[in-house]
Structure formats: C-alpha cells, structure tokens
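The freezer alarm interrupted the setup, so I double-checked each line after restarting. Inputs confirmed:
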Amino acid sequence: MIELQGLTKTYAGKDVVKDVSLRIESGEFGVLIGPSGCGKSTTLRMINRLIPLTQGRIFLGEEDVTELPAEQLRRRIGYAIQSTGLFPHWTVAENIAVVPGLLKWDKSRTSQRVDELLNLFHLDAGEFRDKYPHQLSGGQAQRVGVARALAADPEVLLMDEPFGAVDPLTRDVLQNEMLRVHQQTGKTIVFVTHDMDEALKLASRIAILNAGRLVQYDRPIELLTQPADDFVRSFIGKADLGLKLLSRRWVHQYQQPARVLEHPASFDNDAASAAYGWEVDAQGRALCLHGGRLHADENEQRTQVTHEWTATPDMTMKEALSRMVWFRVMVLPVLDDKERLVGEVAMQGVMGHEPSKQQALGQE
Amino acid sequence: MMRAMTLRAPTQTRTWLLITLSILLVVLVLFMEELKPLFEWVFPDLRSPLYDRESFLQLTLDHLLLVLVSSIISVSVGVGAGLFVTRRNGREFEPLVSSLAAIGQTFPPAAVLAIVVPLAGFGFIPTIVALTLYGLLPVVQNTIAGLGTVPATTLEAARGTGMSRTQVLLRVELPLAMRVIIAGVRVSVIINIGTATIGSTVGAQSLGTPIIAGLVGNNIAYVIQGAVLVGLLAIVTDLFFERLERRFSVGG
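Predicted 3D structure, all chains:
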C-alpha cells in the first residue's frame, strides 16, 4: 500500500506538484496520467526519493518513507524507466542481479532468481543470461528492465513511461505481459503514462493530474462515465469515448449461447434471411458460420472459422467489435482455450444491452 | 563470415606491428653499438659516429622514468580534477579547471622550463613539472568528456536501484567512461614521450641527450640515434594504448 498525503514539490517558487493526496492499495495497478509537465513523473520520483519532496508525507505500508535512508528505500522499491536504463557494460544476468547484489544475496539465490524472472517474461535463460543490452531488441530490453525492477521482490513497482520508446506493436505485447505479470505477482504498481489507451488498458485506478494538481482519482469505468470536470472530459477525448468504454468491457459480459446448427447441410442460405448458425465438429470446435454476414448481398454465405475472427471471453469488446467490422460479420464465435465453441457475441449485443454497473466493475 | 574477417584483419595487422616494433626497439636499445660500422659507412666524415657517453639502455630507462613519473602525476591530478568538477559539489569549478588545463598546454614546454629552472634548479624536477603541466589537459578534458557520455537514463536507473553515489561512480560511471579517459591518457603519454627530450636542455638525462649533443656538436648521427629510439618508443606506446582502449569499449 502506498499513500501520498498533501504531496507538494516547489521548484524556484513554482509548485510543480501541489497538494496531491491519494492511496494505492496493495495489489492495485495505479496509473498517473496527465499532459506533459503535469507533475506525474515528479510525483513518481518523489516516492523513491530521487527527487526530494517539499511538503507532505509518503507512506509505504505503515512506514513514513521520508524517515528511511534513501538508498535502503530504493532497494525495496522496483524502478523501471523509459528506454530501460540498462547498464550497457553488464550482461542481462548482471543487470537483473543489481539489487540482489546490493542487498548481498548469495550467488546461488541470485542466479536462481535471475532465471526465474527471465522465465516470467518468457525469455530463455540459457539464451539471454549472457547477452549484452545492445544485443537485445527494444521489447526484450524493456522486459529485462522490468525484470531488473522486480529482482529483489520489491513491495512496490514504480514505472515511468516504460513502454514510451517502443513501437506500437511491441507496446501492445508488453502491456499484455505487464497485465499477466501483475496478476501473477500481485505487486502494487504505480505507472506513469500520457497515453489514455494504455492507462485504460492497464489500470485498476487512474489518477489524472493537471498543472500539478490531482483532478480525479477513480476506477477507469467511473472516469469514463463520470468525468469530474471539463478537463478530464477533454483529456479522455470525446471522439472515441464509446470505443474507449468498450475497451473496459469484456466479451464474457456480452456473450450469448451459440446457435449451433443440428443439420448444417439443410441450412437455408437464403440471402434475404438474417438467420445464422454455427457448424461444429464432434469435439465441439467451431468449423464455420452459415449466414450472419454484415451485408446480405455478400456472395459467400458460408464463412470458415479462422483464428483471426474469433473471440475469447477475456477479450475487450473494443477488439471484438473491431474484428466484426474488419471481417464483415455480424457475430463472432467465442472460443475457450481448446478452441471449443462456448458462445457467441453479436453486433446487436454491443448496441443493445448495457452490462449492469456491477458486472462492468467486476473486472476491475 | 567475410565481413567478420575483413573487420578483424586490421586488428591482427596492428598486433603484429606492435610485436615487431617492440622487438626492434629492444634490439636497438641493447645493441646500438653493433651498428657502429653502419654509421661509420654512412657518415665517413664524423670522428665519432656513435653516441657512447652513456649506454642507450641507461638513456632509455631515464627517459621512461621521466615519462612515467610525470604521467602518473598528470593522470592522478587530471582524473581527480575531472571527477571533482563532474560531482554535484564541484560543478561550478568546471570552467575554471578546463581553462587552467588549457592554459597549461598553451605554454611551450621550453617556456615552462625557463620559469621553473630558477625556482627548482636544473635536472629532473623542472622537467617533471613541465611534462606534468603539459600532459594535464588531455586527461582532464577526456575525463570530463568520458563521464559526460554516460546517459542520464543510465545514471537515473543506477540511483533508482539504490546504489550509493560512490557505487554509481565505481560501478557505472567510471567503467563506461574508461575508454575515453584512457584515450586522454594515451594522448598525454605520447606527448610526454616526445617532450621529455627537451628535458636534456636543463640537464635531465633522457633520449634527448644524444639529440641535443648532436645538435650542439653538429653530429647528425647522434641526432638520428636519439630520434629513432624516441620515435619507436612513441609508436609502440601508442599501439599498446590502442589495444588497451579497445578492451574497454562497451557495446562493440
């Protein structure tokens, strides 16, 4: 748990962070977001005292951070930054082992921990241990950066725009891995970004800062549905608010039982009919969709199920909708991890019912 | 494969050059007397075509001692000053130290000798002072530049992991700056190998002694004997430092 109380930072008479108070519970994924110069990075760096605070208090659990020696404090807090900050003259293993080294862990324990972390990020320990940072791709280097931050099993992980310098494709992969690592480790995370989509994807709570002040601190869904003021509204971006909302909704909330055809051969492929149904094999795997095209005049009325246009229960509705539009279908098959048809999600469903608030928040 | 070989070839050539020239240097230092017939043949008019007041081994050792002592002082003072002005407390002294070191190099070494001799007398000491001042600038400059090449994100990451300031300096800053610092030391030492010869004008024995004697006594053979050894010494030292620098290069 991290609690900031009336945190203030003054540079040359100007308040860059002004009276920020917020509390991030254990295991939460907190995101600080705001435009450039809003004080989000400064706030983050006051937590591990890279920047001394002017006023206020910071609690890590029950302890007042400002009373601990700075170096000891930092060894208990993981810190990952943009462009990784990996030490170029050390191997991947040596980089990850920095904090265990400072804490004087013995060799075998450190070595074991390095392998464990490389595995956590799906990096083959045998291959990557002895590589130097310049031999890594941007995504790999960023993973090693986060692994280093997690090395000594810190109570809290601070991340300062860690994925700001990688390409969009890699960023998406890294975000998914971060969610998985967060779930697996249950760490309390404080994450700084200026990218609202990234915040909505990762955060369990979002703090919006503007000109050094905390404007709103809420769960993502509440931020989208009940923005505190015009600044928040404009910062979220009105244009694709609907889509952003769908990025916090999951397929399983909209999922309906699949209409499985008993006799696919006798399905009426009448172009004018809106009817559709699924053909499945003996193992319950979806084979193809009869009917259900976006436009009734599409010539092919029988669509093979391919991996690209299926959905999974934990996919966001934004992505599901995007797939429907791209593959010109009215309905997506929802498959479990063994590719069995467990339901369907349809375009009418997205437009139609709104999941109850309880349901929507259940994912948070 | 081809590319790797073409890249490696010059390195290997230079290694062989280093070995060959080192052997040549040692042989010339030890057996210069054996070349007496050669010098007699080339310079038939000279009454004494081989410098024989001291052995060339002794002259070379004296020369090396001058360079070694002055370089040790230059490097300690230079790296120390460079470190001081890149720390938080010394940052404001950076322009002062940089210009002092630059002034040290604009003084011709002969002028420094002219100033120091009346103060410290003839011989070893004034030569050391002149060489030290002269060799300071490259070390100071490269120490500051080398530490400046360490990326800010690397430093922030180092502090973020909980290293103390000393740990950041010893484990991150110095190793990363080492290649550039050594390049500065290389320039400084090479300059001093050449400049040490003028120490002979104020009575410090070195490989400059036969050169000065030759210039004064109009004996070109003495000049050649001294100059060849100084030149070889400088080239061998330079090649050695080049290898040393490469060992400290990071990220290929």
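Quick read of the result. The longest helix of chain A spans residues 168-185.
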